[in-house]
Amino acid sequence: MITGIDSRIREPDTVGRVDIASLTVFCQTCSQFYICYQISSPHFAIVRFTGAFERMSGKPTKKTTVKKSAAKKEVSKKPVAGKQRRWKATLLGLFSVSLVIFGAWMIYLDAEVRRAFDGKKWALPAKVYARPLALYPGLLLSPQQLQAELQWSDYRQSRAADRPGTYQRTGNTWRIYRRGFPFWDGPEPSRVIEVTLASGRVEKVSDEQSAKALVRLEPQYIGGIFPVHNEDRELVRLEDVPPVLVAALIITEDKRFFEHWGISPTGIARAMVANVNAGRMVQGGSTLTQQLVKNFFLTNERSLSRKIQEAFMSLLLELHYDKEEILEAYINEVYLGQSGRRSIHGFGLASRFYFGKPLRELDNAEIATLVGLVKGASYYNPRRNPQRSKDRRDLILGLMAESQVITEAESLRAKRTPLLTASPKRAGQREYPAFLELAKQQLQQDYRLQDLQSEGLRIFTTLDPWVQSAVESSAEAHLSSLETRSPRLKGKLETAAVITSVDGGEIRALLGGRDASFFGFNRALNAKRAVGSLAKPAVYLAALRSGEYHWGTLIDDSPVTVEGQDGSLWQPQNYDKKSHGMLPMQETLQRSLNQATARLGMTVGLDKVVDELVRLGIRDDLPPYPSLLLGAMSLSPFEMTQMYQTIASEGFLMPLRTIDAVTTAEGDMLSSYAIRGQQVYDPVTMEWLTSGLKAVVSEGTARRLNDLPQPLAGKTGTSDEQRDAWYAGFDNRHLGVIWVGMDDNGPMPFTGSSGALPIWQESFRRMGTEPLTPSRSLVDIPVNPQGQLLEDGCSGKVYNFPASWQTTKRLACESGVQSIGKGIRSWFERLF
Amino acid sequence: MVRTIVLIAVVGFLTACASTSTQDGPTENYGQYQGGTDHPAVKMLFGQADDAAKAGNWSAALTYLDQARRIEPRNPYVLYRQAKTYAAAGDNARARQLLERARVFADDEDEMLSYLLYELEFQL
Fold it and tell me: Which structural domains are found in chain B, ordered by start?
């Protein structure tokens, strides 16, 4: 930004550096004026050319004279033999051919340089963001969550919250200086907001003028969709780069950058002398332009031919592009570190990666640290080699003071600063491999992979980092505790989890394995495991929908034998190996009794149960074997989530989705993904089924959840020989499905209740639990011990019924023997 | 009988409103009932969705409404608006799905909503 023009002309001692007062400067060497365009340091400014670069021309040579004298010599040496002429002709021919080859090579190099440098220089990976935290009065939000979300977004606590990226907490009031961000619906500038919390909810949101209905914090970056080489970068424009950084880079890497034409013979000579004196490679003679050419066009091969090519390409680059373009490209290209599979390129991304803030917020010490990485990103890595990095940083700070980029006092102050970097594991820089894999799969339904890898798209997803964090930490803590109880399983237990929003099917968290940062086998999506009793609600749903059963209907839990088509016998047993006689249907579900459920399923009809599974959203082939009634089929946690999603949402079958919106790199919206689905069940039926699942939590196998706000609904699941432990449950906001098992499918000494449910329990405790709302359509009807409906007010166990059952003929209170409805005994019941 | 009378009265009232709104060009093709929530954030999002819809930016309108749905996930008016916007955008199949979803949470006593849902169903 030009802040003013000073007409005073002076001669700068180094091109590119002037005192602050001189906004217009003159360079004697190149006979050009320069204008400062960015002033941010009291002692330093960056300059750029006002017009085309013109060098002073040299003295004319006397080529004509030379030619004439040569001609004279030729005439005087007439007697020379034709042999000499032939030699000359040959040499001339060779020279001409070489010249042609050289010219062709130069044309080729020139085309290469221009092709790669014109227009889009880099394949920009899609940037994937979590959901933005929308703050509005009434939102369930604990102080812990707000604090964590701010820290994960690299906000720093300060006394005044006086610049973007800082916050100040006073009791329950948080003053947050939110950064500007290009949201899916347009950019929002940085602004100060105040959030007041009370009783675990947002009480008030306001900015500096008035109360606000809704304010968004910027979403966290959660990963990218990278090209094969996994290069990541955050492009910056030169005018957005702190001048001090540019100066520090130039004085450290290429002092004569503004003077040379791509190569620096003096620099090469100086490096050669230094290397010869040292007896080894201690100094490189490459200019910034050469370094850029090497990184941009060439390989790391060290050979003379590559060096020559690099030199010519540098000259060509300088011929076609001005210094600013080259500098900007360098700042975005340079390799500055590694984060797992992702290579960190450019100062923009490096600033966020190492210090958790944008370039313009860096202080002198941080700038020097980053510039120090140019020489060796791994060798001077401030996290792995802090002392080495600090030494290098201090050296550069010294150079900066020496060149008057900063004052001596500033340099000393910066040197006293400890080498502080942001944690590489914070949410803002870590990735979420399991979630990203699913997001990528879903994006590829609408976008080509190569576009996702190269167009710099912005992907706004449904991931809730707070929920993800709760699941990850709960899973790790519980698996460690299980392994403490069973040391033989140490390191063998694995897990997977899916958390969605009940009403929208948005995936809020996805855990593909115990190591949440592992890019590999994603158990949540791909581990097909026996689902055990998690399938039972489909059996009970088929029974309820038949119109012949209610939760008080008596079911026989005696041994059951079913003969398969091949003559094999299926004889399921209860977990406790006992039979429990006649029990109300609700009790058989809440206790997860296998014999009763198998009998019920066979009575209702296997095909009916399969139909319910399909209607609930299971798309895998379901072989109609009786063992399917007890969950012998193998499905992934994701597929089980789909099934329970339909139940939790009162019968709305909707695709589970990870994507909210996609915009171009410039912020134009390409697509949005709002709710969609189909009401596949009458909501009353689903509420009725849910009332049974509530009993599982209040009185059944999931009753250990009683310390959470009630009511909740869910179902435990354990496969044969306890190879798999499951729990699927939901509160008013979220559905969670948890699986625990071993990759080798070995048996475990745990059930769904002890293996998986505690992870759900702790996750929901941390996330914040909201009890299910009372049923809108069910009524309470007392039922006698024989499973017969009684009139209102009679003593008997009360069960939930759809309101339509109120008109069913019921027994008077004194009675109790009158049968209702038609007989329900089927051929199967009569048989057993 | 009373419900029928009220329904007819509401239809008459809305018809009158519709005839006056024709003066405003952009809202002629995309009129939204302005009630249905007391939540300030949802109201704000309704407004943003309306602005986007009037500008023909259906994607943005639907995303604003989906944000409103997250705040009040079982508010049938939010789902109705989503259905109506899908219909306006020409996606009748999706509109029908959300219309049906709105009915799940609709209160039978809410005559206004009953009318709106009926009207939209008729339109589809």
Answer: 37-123 (1.25.40.10)
Asked if B59 and A503 come within 8 Å (Cβ–Cβ), the reply is no
Residues in chain B within 8 Å Cβ distance of A683 = 104
Q: How far apart are CA A158 and CA A165, in angstroms?
A: 10
Q: Which two tokens stand for residue A247?
A: 């100066």
Nearest CA-CA partner of A226 in A333, A329, A339, A342? A342
Look up the ipTM and state it: 0.79
Q: Is A464 on the interface with B (CB under 8 A)?
A: no
Cα–Cα distance measured from residue A27 to residue A48, given in angstroms and rounded to the nearest whole number: 11
For residue A222, pLDDT over 60 is answered with yes
pLDDT at A232 over 90: no
Question: What's the CA gap between A207 and A215, in Å, rounded?
Answer: 9
Q: Which residues in chain B have Cβ-Cβ distances shorter than 8 Å to A686?
A: none
Picking from A272, A376, A329, the residue whose alpha carbon sits closest to that of residue A113 is A329
Distance CA A311, CA A329 (A): 17
In this structure, how many other beta carbons lie within 10 angstroms of the beta carbon of residue A185?
21
Helix, strand or coil for residue A340?
coil
Q: Which residue of B has its CA nearest to A684?
A: B104
Whether A112 has its CB under 8 Å from any CB of chain B: the answer is no
Between chain A and chain B, the number of residue pairs with CB atoms below 8 A apart is 77
Residue A184, chain B, CB below 8 Å: the answer is yes
Q: Report the C-alpha gap between A504 and A525 in whole angstroms.
A: 19
Q: Where are the beta strands (DSSP E) in A694-815?
A: 713-718, 724-730, 734-742, 778-783, 797-802
DSSP A790: B
User: What digits encode the pLDDT tens for the residues A484-528?
Assistant: 999 999 989 999 999 999 999 999 999 999 998 888 899 999 999
Give A675→chain B minimum CA distance, Å: 7
Closest partner residue to B59 (CB to CB) among A502, A671, A676 is A671
Name every residue in B having a CB less than 8 A away from some CB of A: 39-41, 43-45, 48, 52, 57, 59-60, 62-67, 69-71, 73-74, 82, 94, 97-98, 100-101, 104
Give the rounded distance of the alpha carbon of A174 from its chain centre.
27
pLDDT band, very low/low/confident/very high, at A75 (cuts 50, 70, 90): very low
Residue A393 identity (one-letter amino acid)? R
Per-state percent for chain A, helix, strand, coil, to nearest 5: 40, 20, 40
A769 neighbors A755 (Cβ within 8 angstroms): no
Q: Is A253 a known active-site residue? A: yes
